[in-house]
Write a structure and sequence with these properties.
The complex is a heterodimer. Helix content of chain A is 34%, strand content 26%. The two termini of chain A are 45 Å apart. Chain A has a 6-stranded mixed beta sheet with strand order 6-7-8-3-9-10, sandwiched between helices. Chain A is globular, with a radius of gyration of 24 Å. In chain A, a hairpin with a 2-residue loop joins β17 and β18 (361-362). Chain B folds into 2 domains: 3-41 and 172-367, no CATH class; 48-165, abc type-2 transporter like fold (3-Layer(aba) Sandwich). Chain B has 14 helices and 4 strands. Chain B has a 4-stranded mixed beta sheet with strand order 2-1-3-4, with helices on both faces. In chain B, α3 (59-69) links the parallel β1 (48-54) and β2 (74-79). Classes of the chains: A alpha/beta, B mainly alpha. Chains A and B meet through β6 and α3 of A and α1 and α8 of B.
Chain lengths: 541, 373
């Protein structure tokens, strides 16, 4: 019986303890899910088990006991590790085929017929058969993740460790990834340890471990975990602060409330945990703009916008409209043209075809945009922050770029830090902060000049549940108080529910554009927006 | 040893080097350094402008003046201006030096009396001024020597030739500089590439492929460093050809010694690069750090600017702490002298280089960890 036993594993970086005495057992064929906030210790445990990180404690795999990376060498042939980060383990200039060749040689695989068959099957499962000659650097994020996964699977590891393999991957690719995993565990009897930020995925796992502040605070099947918080979940009711949290139509409280109970979700675990740990969420407030502005009814209007990269059509005659005070969700698979579209709106890419009106002004050249720069805010996929400057310095720098008078800038920075809840991190470097905090202060940087339109490109990828909840709280407040219009892209289908209107892109074309209510009316069978998304994506092949 | 795995890694390295065009740097950078410095650095002075004021107008003074006129080292102008005017022309940078022959030059000389020649040199560039001064001295002494010989007199110590100021007829600038440049290039280029190739994987995250695989540390290093070693081995020959055919530096020693000591030297450079990759996480830091730790000692202690033997105190000690001095000694020997392994100093220096290699390589291997930091 090949199983893994992890006993009292502690990982510390310099003085910071990242993981405290974590223990777990897993048997062959089991999929164990790791969930928890950024920096909760999931990656540390994975790295310790994979033998790439020093730790205290002991791990036994298949009868081999190890206490250090050195002792773990003997089990490395059986391990497959896919670390966190899109395309992290890929070489940009190598093609898909060359990657498989390299990983096969790296693992010293005998390249016989059986290998070729397995290789072809993996390629087929990942939908990469047609792309063996394409360089990894030119693949979309989802394709990179699938390639990383099949490279990790190539030597049929018995212990598969996957750190957020689906972050930044679209729902369709995510389903495909899960099919691959399911097949592997059935055929190979592998133990699969996988961390994820998508709770729908956690529900598919055999057992789930909830990490918080370096400890595993809850474990069990997703059913068991959900049951454990059942007494604390109610339908949305008004309730005093500090005692309960309300999010997404549910109110969480430790004390009994006079309200009807609601069906809990895995996300609820995080809120209940926050209540139990008495970690009040930073309160999100937003005051009115300091200078009132007049905003036209339609802030952005795109007509037949197209973008070509050589033969590749990134955007094919896309029409779109963004109204005053509207949150518009832009959804689509990896490589569907979402980022390209936003970049064209911003003038980062030239528009190859079509017309664009911003705030009632036709945009033809860079000159037309000059006056508009102060009206538009943008947060990119990777939060364009300077890593060697503290949060405060970053914000001051952005304020200077927008030529905001120093007094106003300092006043606004102080206010945002308080309102968006990153006051205590002002003098730290962005690299030492959780993604969720970086995300909040990135948005503060985009708000310093009080824009009327905000473009957000996947601002929530990789950010944990509570931070995402708070992020949406900010967007809602912005909309209410500022009448700001927001165009946002995301891979979390649950977030589509917070948008006023959703546009679906596929292969550079717009395939749907409607209000959320209308989407549900036209798809009466759909329970979540993910169902709707998949229906559209599958039907219009 | 997993030969196939190492081979796969190496093939990957070559493909990446080729596709990222980094391969251009492997051959272009050494070439540029040698060409730019080889043509750019001039220690020797020729055609220095000298203004001669001959107040004597005698046979001997004419003889002396003609000595200055018939050498490539000086462009002489004979003038009768006043000393003050002459000094002014130095200030205006119209001339580099002034020689003033006093009116009773010949008479005093024949009477065996002391005669003073006035020499003024523009010292805006001190090194150049010293060189010009020593050339002037040498020219005067050589003229005096001829006169003495012509009269059948013995110099008998009345005229002392300063050995330091000899013209170095055979020692051209190229001979003095180009071999030293080889020592500089072969220290910098392989180190940068080695540091880059390892740090690149750290920065990108692909280093996980090594961490999580059964590949051992030694195998990984072999796979990373062997391609660079092979690529730069070609440079040993390219640099040799440039030195001998383009700069026409003579080659008097054993090619075998040149080749093998250069390979040894490349290995030292690779080990330095590896050490740097252990302590850096970003490619840009790795490059800057490598340049700092290799280019400065590679240049200062190359023997190009200043002979190591004339160094004193700290600089003498520092020079002995870097491998470049030992290798350059062998280089200059193989190119210009040709003593080869008959010289016990060269054997000693080869052993010292071997010691450097063992020290750098072992510490690199020990410090490189197959785990995250």
């Amino acid at each position: 019986m090949s199983g893994i036993e992890v006993k009292d594993v502690t990982v510390s970086y310099k003085k910071k303890v990242a993981l405290k005495e974590a223990s777990l057992n897993a048997n062959s064929g089991e999929i164990i899910g790791f969930i928890g906030a950024d920096g909760a210790g999931k990656s540390s445990l994975m790295h310790a088990i994979a033998g790439v990180l020093r730790f205290k404690g002991e791990i036994t795999y298949d009868g081999h006991l190890y206490h250090s990376p050195k002792e773990a060498e003997k089990i490395k042939p059986h391990i497959g590790l896919m670390p966190q980060g899109i395309g992290l383990v890929l070489y940009d200039t190598l093609t898909v085929g060359e990657h498989l060749q390299f990983f096969a040689d790296l693992r010293g695989l005998k390249q016989d017929d059986a290998y070729q068959k397995y290789r072809d099957r993996l390629l087929h499962m990942a939908g990469l058969s047609a792309f063996t000659d394409r360089e990894a650097g030119k693949l979309s994020g989802g394709m990179m993740q699938k390639l990383s996964l099949i490279c990790t699977l190539l030597h049929r590891p018995k212990l598969l460790i996957l750190d957020e393999p689906t972050t930044g991957v679209d729902p369709l690719s995510r389903l495909e990834l899960w099919e691959i995993l399911d097949t592997i565990r059935k055929e190979e009897g592998s133990i699969i340890l996988v961390s994820t930020a998508y709770m729908q995925e956690a529900a598919k796992m055999d057992r789930v471990m909830l990490f918080d502040e370096g400890e595993i605070i809850a474990r069990g099947t997703s059913g068991e975990l959900i049951d454990s918080i059942r007494p604390y979940v109610y339908e949305k009711v008004p309730c005093p602060e500090n005692e309960c949290l309300t999010f997404d139509g549910r109110t969480y409280a430790l004390e009994a409330l006079n309200a009807s109970p609601a069906e809990p979700t895995l996300e609820g675990l995080f809120f209940v945990n926050a209540l139990q740990k008495k970690k009040p969420l930073s309160k999100i407030e937003m005051v009115e703009r300091s200078e009132a502005v007049e905003i036209p009814e339609i802030v952005m209007e795109a007509k037949g916008i197209s973008k070509y990269f050589g033969d590749f059509v990134a955007n094919d005659h896309v029409d779109m409209e963004l109204k005053r005070g509207e949150i518009l969700g832009l959804l689509g698979a990896n490589g569907a043209g979402k980022t390209t579209f936003i970049k064209m709106l911003l003038g980062l890419y030239p528009i190859d075809e079509g017309e664009l009106m911003l705030l009632g002004k036709p945009i033809q050249s860079g000159k037309d945009r000059r006056g508009l720069k102060s009206k538009i805010g943008y947060v990119s996929q990777h939060f364009a922050l300077y890593k060697d400057m503290t949060v405060r310095e970053n914000l001051l720098y952005f304020a200077n770029m927008h030529k905001i008078p120093m007094n106003t800038a300092l006043e606004r920075i102080r206010r945002y830090a308080k309102e968006l809840g990153f006051e205590e991190y002002m003098d730290e470097l962005p690299t030492s902060l959780p993604l969720g905090v970086n995300q909040r202060f990135s948005i503060a940087a985009a708000l310093l000049h009080e824009p009327v339109i905000l473009f957000l490109d996947e601002p929530t990828s990789g950010v944990d549940t509570i931070a995402r909840a708070q992020f949406w709280e900010i967007l809602k407040k912005l909309k209410e108080k500022w009448g700001i219009s927001i165009l946002i892209t995301t891979h979390y289908m649950s977030e589509a529910e917070y948008c006023d209107r959703v546009v679906l892109l596929k292969g550079g074309k717009k395939i749907a554009d409607d209000t959320l209510a209308n989407f549900y009316t036209s798809n009466p069978n759909a329970e979540t927006f993910e169902d709707i998304f998949l229906t559209y994506y599958r039907s219009e092949k | 040893m997993k030969i196939n795995t190492i081979k796969a890694y190496m093939v990957k390295e070559f493909m990446e080097l080729w596709r990222t065009r980094l391969i251009v740097m492997v051959y272009l950078m050494p070439l540029m350094i040698v060409l730019l410095f080889g043509y750019g650095i001039r220690m020797d002075v020729s055609h220095a402008r000298i203004l001669i004021i001959d107040n004597d107008q005698s046979k001997y003074s004419m003889q002396l003046v003609s000595k200055f006129e018939h050498t490539k080292y000086f462009n002489a102008t004979i003038s009768q201006m006043s000393e003050k005017e002459a000094l002014h022309s130095i200030k205006q940078a119209k001339t580099d030096a002034i020689l003033i022959i006093p009116s009773s030059f010949e008479k005093r000389l024949l009477h065996g009396q002391k005669s003073e020649l006035g020499v003024f040199v523009d010292a805006a560039f001190p090194t150049r001024a010293t060189t010009i001064e020593s050339y002037i001295q040498a020219t005067i002494f050589s003229a005096a020597g001829e006169v003495a010989a012509g009269m059948g007199l013995q110099t008998k110590g009345t005229i002392v030739l300063n050995a330091r100021a000899l013209f170095n007829q055979a020692m051209r600038d190229e001979d003095a500089i180009v071999p030293g440049l080889i020592g500089l290039v072969l220290l910098i280029a392989p180190a940068i590439l080695a540091a880059l190739l390892i740090v690149k994987e750290k920065e990108k995250g692909t280093i996980f492929n090594f961490y999580a695989s059964p590949l051992s540390k030694g195998e990984f290093l072999l796979a990373k460093l062997l391609p660079i070693f092979l690529l730069h081995s070609v440079n040993i020959f390219i640099l040799f050809l440039i030195a001998v055919y383009l700069f026409e530096v003579p080659f008097r020693g054993s090619f075998m010694l040149y080749w093998l000591s250069s390979e040894l030297y490349i290995l030292i450079s690779l080990s330095i690069g590896m050490l740097i990759s252990v302590i850096t996480k970003r490619q840009i830091v790795a490059v800057v750090l490598t340049v700092v730790v290799t280019i400065l000692p590679g240049f200062l202690y190359s023997g190009m600017l200043m002979p190591i033997s004339s160094m004193e105190g700290e600089s003498y000690i520092e020079a002995h702490m870097f491998p470049v001095m030992y290798y350059n000694h062998i280089l200059y020997d193989t190119f210009l002298i040709g003593q080869g392994i008959d010289s016990s100093k060269i054997i000693l220096y080869l052993l010292i280089l071997l010691g450097f290699l063992l020290f750098f390589f072992t510490s690199g291997v020990l410090l490189l960890k197959k785990e995250m930091k």
